[in-house]
Amino acid sequence: xxxxxxxxxxxxxxxxTERKEGLVRHEVFFGRGKRELSIEDGLVIFITPALHxxxxxxxxxxxxxxxxxxxxxxxxxxxxxxxxxEDFIKRYGKSYL
Length: 97
Ligand SMILES: [Zn+2]
Description:
Elements: E1 24-27, H1 34-41, E2 44-47, H2 49-52, H3 63-80, H4 85-92
Antiparallel strand pairs: 1-2
């Protein structure tokens, strides 16, 4: 049995919250050390390659989709870890709310 990957993100029509056949993992916050923080904090989603980076609507090229996921991730992080928006900025550099 595959190890379940840590994910605190809520279920959504656009992604799964655990790895399933054919899906790839996306770290909601990526680049400059944020990818590691996303993995550590469970801010990851599982999406189809097309919705990841294999098409123009993919989250890496689609600003609206990217921000949509980031806003949900920030709210979820604040709630899950009982933190504030300021705490989030300290860890991730900026707020998306
Ligand atoms: Zn990605």
